[in-house]
Specification:
Layout: E1 4-5, E2 12-16, H1 21-26, E3 32-38, E4 51-59, E5 77-84, E6 87-96, E7 102-109, H2 118-132, E8 137-143, H3 147-155, E9 159-164, E10 179-185
Parallel strand pairs: 7-8
Antiparallel strand pairs: 1-2, 2-5, 3-4, 5-6, 6-7, 8-10, 9-10
Keywords: Acyltransferase, Transferase
Protein name: Acetyltransferase (GNAT) family protein
Organism: Pseudomonas saponiphila
């Protein structure tokens, strides 16, 4: 695949991940600031979701490049890396999910490279990959404490598909983290009616 160059940010290019993927992951900061937990509400814009403010802290889920070692150059998955001025700054791992949608298994951008269109460009590549596979759309999951990601997905045309309040309680019974499932349905596919 030829690099995809972003016309808004000409120094930004997306390429299939290479052998430098692990070194890039270990050398990057994928943390983000949490200052509130949202209560996702179907039919409401993310900006209108009720919030429970917290004392701000940094959150990082910890990314292991070996976890996706078999995804590179596979029939039903791929890893793409974003480069800003030839420096690796982000990645997306995409696969065919069991339900037939493209699945963004992981999307991450190095903290200093945010606000340069990197995540949006990576999402566009995941959508292109999914369309090429003739899948009906793309899905992904984030959490109610990552409001920046929620706003991004909403701006990129994703819709709230579901909320799981129990998903992370096995890890921490007291957690306030809630899983949010987002879907981007392709225009040429039937749309789901909202209740």
């Amino acid at each position: 695949m030829q690099p995809v160059v972003n016309p808004v940010h000409p120094g930004l290019a997306i390429r299939v991940a290479d052998q430098g993927f692990a070194a890039y992951v270990w050398g990057s900061d994928f943390s983000f600031e949490v200052n509130a937990y949202a209560e996702p509400a179907p039919g409401l814009a993310v900006a209108d979701w009720p919030l429970r403010k917290v004392v701000p802290y940094r959150k990082c889920y910890g990314i292991d490049p070996e976890e996706f070692g078999s995804y590179r150059n596979a029939a039903d998955s791929e890893i793409f890396m974003a480069y800003l001025d030839d420096q690796p700054v982000g990645h997306v791992v995409v696969s065919t999910n069991w339900n037939g949608y493209g699945h963004v298994d992981e999307l991450a951008v190095h903290a200093p490279a945010r606000r340069h269109g990197v995540a949006r460009a990576l999402l566009e590549v995941a959508q292109f990959w999914s369309r090429k596979k003739q899948l009906p759309g793309v899905m992904l999951e984030t959490q109610n404490n990552n409001l920046g990601a929620c706003r991004l997905y909403e701006r990129c045309g994703y819709v709230l598909g579901g909320v799981d309040h129990m998903r992370y309680r096995g890890i921490d019974p007291q957690t306030r983290e809630v899983a949010i499932f987002w879907y981007h349905l392709f225009a040429d596919q039937p749309q789901v009616r909202q209740p």
